[in-house]
Every structure is written in structure tokens, then in C-alpha cells.
What we know:
200 residues, Rossmann fold, 2 domains, 5-stranded mixed β-sheet
Amino acid sequence: MRPRTAPKSLYIFYIYHDCAKPMSKLVVVTGTSGCGKSTLIRRILNHENVSLSVSHTTREKRAGENNHIDYHFITKDEFMKMDRSNEFYETTFYDNHYYGTAKSELNKNEYVIIDCDRIGAAKFNEFNNVKIFFYNTKDVLYERLMKRYNNKEKAERRLQSYEIDMKTYREGNYKHSIFTDDLERNVKELETIIFGSNNI
Length: 200
């Protein structure tokens, strides 16, 4: 089955198993909305041996985002064409937009960062990887999202999955976690997880 249409805010997930095991060491990161994950990823990409798996998406660019760096921004028709050609390892539908990880993104460097939601993180279990969960309190996340969007309805909608995200974390689905309250310390924690042990 291929993604066609879906109700707003419904997750639809597909995984493709005809993808050979990546040569790169995958670092799968996920977290609650507003957790600061993107900021931490940008900092870790300062290392030459780390690359980001850039997802394809049908949503519009946010202020400050760059095409082919933050996401590959494409139309819905382009996304569906890639999907029919079996170019994606996984796809998901979130907040009325499609997202997908192309198979070609999984062999870009010694370490490849996979930025995804909790559903996507579960789909990379078949490969040897490190899984990291970023989080903070709901009140702090709400404040961050209000600063980002200046829209109460949108901030509340982005936090709809907070409880289930935290439940998934508490159930022990992630080997590592980072409480995102101090950027510089959090960067060092992330570097230690990726480079400072035999976790990968």
C-alpha cells in the first residue's frame, strides 16, 4: 500500500525492507516537540565525520530553514512519484504533511544522524544503531513553541503527542536520553554518547 491521502494529524507509517544494511553508523534521535533537537543536531554536524540524513517533506519551509540542508522540500506529487519508485526507506504522515527518509541518505558519512519521531525511531531497530531521546517539561516546551509560532492553537497541537512520547521513553525504548535544559552541556552529552563509548 502507498500513501494517498490521510486525515489531519494522523500518523501513517510505511517501512521498506529491501534496503541493504547501511555502511554508516546510524544515530537515531527523536524527542518531544520543542525539545531543541534541531539545535543540538546543528551543533553535532560541526564534526566532519557526521552527516544528517535529510528527510523529504511536503510542508513549507519555516523561517531560517534551507532547502537540501534542513529538509528536501518537495511537492506532494513529487513525493508520491518517489514513493511509487520505492525510493524511500520509510515515510510518515504528520500534521497534514508527508515526510520520508530516502534510502540514499543512509550511507553519507561515518556517522549519519536520523532525525525522526517516535514511530520512525522504532522502524530503525533492524539496524545496529544508537537511539537518543530529547525531552523537557511540558510547560517549558509550551513556552518554546509559543515563542516559535506565537499561536496558542498550534503550540497546543504540537504538544498533543507529549504524553505518549514520554510514555514511550519511560517504557525503555531508548538507550540514551538528554534533558534539554543547557545547550553547551547537552552538546557535550551528545558528543559523549556518539563518540565517547562503544555504543555504536
